[in-house]
Recover the amino acids of this structure.
């Protein structure tokens, strides 16, 4: 069992955070063109926004949690 408290103070902490990072922050999870939630393969789900290529001075005002919720609901409603 391990517990990480938020500070890297020695080599053991560094080793632990590296293990966590390799397990959690995989490229497949952070690359929008490849990211799919586990168990949604049958729904042909795609990431609903092209944030990297959107030009806007306040991108956070466009891609809000409500935006993503509406896009996901719209995609699943189309399957009904």
């Amino acid at each position: 069992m391990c517990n990480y408290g938020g500070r890297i103070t020695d080599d053991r902490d560094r080793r632990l955070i590296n293990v966590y990072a390799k397990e959690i922050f995989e490229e497949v999870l952070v690359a929008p063109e490849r990211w799919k939630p586990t168990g949604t393969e049958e729904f042909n789900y795609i990431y609903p926004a092209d944030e990297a290529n959107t030009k806007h001075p306040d991108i956070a005002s466009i891609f809000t949690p409500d935006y993503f919720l509406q896009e996901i609901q719209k995609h699943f409603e189309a399957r009904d």
User: Anything to note?
Assistant: The mean pLDDT is 76. The chain has two domains: 1-30, 37-80.
